[in-house]
Design a protein that fits this description.
With about 425 residues, the chain is of the alpha/beta class. The protein has three domains: about 5-135 and about 305-335, 3-Layer(aba) Sandwich (Rossmann fold), CATH 3.40.50.720; about 140-300, Dihydrodipicolinate Reductase, domain 2; about 350-430, Alpha-Beta Plaits (2-Layer Sandwich), CATH 3.30.70. It contains 14 helices and 16 strands. The strands form two sheets. Strands 7, 8, 9, 10, 11, 12, 13, 14, 15 and 16 form a ten-stranded mixed β-sheet that branches. Strands 3-2-1-4-5-6 form a six-stranded parallel β-sheet, with helices on both faces. The N and C termini lie far apart (about 60 Å).
Length: about 425
């Protein structure tokens, strides 16, 4: 039986899960592949990680380049992360004729084009299923299962940390800071949670999915990004009263000549299937011309769920090696000459419904001043709620608008914030409500 040797770069959380699966499920994988997929070497700069699982002598090393330069290794699994060392190791591995599996969404979103070009130049496979959605096979779905569909839109919860935090705020009424601390204590958030809670991790994943869905170059810098750190229990309660839930959504839609690609807190109807996705789960809805609406959900992070995706890609490449079928599935779903430069619509040009909360002085004429400015910017108010006094002299005023252009809304809110009757900056949350134009 042919032996296919694997080298693992990085023995962190996901790397450890990958090593465990390759070792513990070796016979299962062999029976399904028809070859012995063998973990030959593991590299990590932290030698203590060699004690995390039982390894044969000589498997662990601190020299990553000894793996990418080893002529006996066929597949390199990059689980290091970051955009410098990881990129250098991937390029060196491909230069040496090795296939690569990576979970590195930030590298793919920011510098993926150079990696795809290198894979084409050196005639090797580059697989990246674990970069988006953990164990959800979203990339395989777009590249293979939906290959005959025009994809119209995708909406997803792509960060388990943010979904966990928003679930805690919703269900327990605690503030963002307390929910974040709980997420950190339970291992769902990093000590520095910026990449997650400010939306960058979600945007990296959206950049990859948008490229695959529409056959376009990755345009991470053009994606609008807004995080969840300003979401309060008060906003959660108001959303519930209006029949909505708040989620951090990645939203992508294609029009005739451009696409939308944005990440921000969003109100969705409580009967929307995404509103029921709790805790650290991820979920995506996809609309295609033949299949209609699809829903995919699963654990978006963690040792074993993400490791499962790494093994899936590894097995795909092993099967290709057996049949000498390199490049059988295009890296970005479309053949290279058909990858286009499709512009991303600036956020200022996008129209949505809006939820706006003002903290206003408790005196006559406030509502007319606010509504007057909104009217001057062609923003139509759908409904208004003015609650009882929450603090001395100040009351919350909540408005839901009809569809309005982002630029107009930003200009109106800037003017309203300057009114002497407004005590705090207004809060704006966009609404995705397909049943209300």
């Amino acid at each position: 039986m042919q032996e296919i040797n694997v080298g693992l770069l990085g023995m962190g959380t996901v790397g450890e899960g990958v090593a465990r699966m390759l070792i513990n499920n070796r016979e299962l994988i062999r029976s399904r592949v028809g070859a012995d997929v063998r973990l030959k070497r593991i590299a990590d700069i932290d030698i203590s990680r060699s004690q995390q699982i039982e390894l044969e002598n000589g498997v662990f090393t601190t020299d990553a380049y000894s793996i990418v330069n080893d002529p006996d290794i066929h597949i390199v699994l990059e689980m290091i992360g970051g955009q410098s060392v990881a990129k250098d190791l991937i390029l060196k591995a491909m230069q040496n004729g090795k296939h690569v599996v990576t979970a590195n969404k930030s590298l793919l979103a920011n510098q993926g084009q150079s990696l795809f070009q290198a894979a084409h130049e050196y005639q090797v496979d580059l697989a990246f299923e674990p970069s988006v959605g953990g164990c959800m096979p979203i990339i395989k779905l777009l590249r293979e299962s939906l290959v005959g569909n025009h994809i119209y839109s995708m909406t997803g919860i792509l960060n388990g940390t943010c979904n966990y935090i928003l679930t805690k705020i919703t269900e327990e009424g605690i503030p963002f800071e307390s929910a974040l601390a709980d997420a950190q204590a339970n291992g769902f958030a990093e000590a520095d949670p910026t990449m997650d809670v400010e939306g960058f991790d979600t945007a990296h994943k959206l950049a990859i999915l948008t490229s695959l869905a529409y056959g376009m170059q990755i345009n991470f810098k053009d994606i609008y990004i807004e995080g969840i750190s300003r979401i309060t229990p008060m906003d959660i309660r108001f959303a519930d009263e209006f029949g909505f839930r708040i989620k951090l959504l990645a939203i992508s839609k294609i029009g005739e000549n451009a696409v939308e690609a944005r990440v921000h807190p969003t109100m969705i109807a409580s009967d929307n299937i995404l509103s029921s996705v709790r805790g650290s789960l991820n979920a995506v809805t996809i609309t295609g011309d033949a299949v209609g609406d699809l829903f995919l959900s699963g654990h978006g992070a963690g040792m074993m769920p993400t490791a499962s995706s790494v093994i899936s890609d590894t097995v795909d490449i092993a099967r290709n090696i057996l049949h000498k079928a390199i490049g059988r599935v295009p890296l970005l779903s479309y053949q290279t000459p058909n990858i286009k430069q499709i512009p991303v619509i600036p956020m200022e040009m996008i129209s949505t419904h809006h939820y706006i909360r003002f903290s206003a002085l408790d005196q006559p004429g406030v509502l007319s001043k606010i509504s007057g400015i909104l009217g001057n910017h062609n923003i139509s108010i759908k409904s208004v709620q003015q609650k009882g006094r929450k603090q001395k002299g100040s009351v919350p005023i909540v408005m839901m608008t009809h569809r309005a252009k982002e630029a107009s809304m930003k200009q109106a809110l800037a003017e309203i914030a300057l009114l002497n009757v407004i005590s705090q900056p207004p809060t704006l949350i966009r609404i995705e409500d397909e049943n209300d134009e």
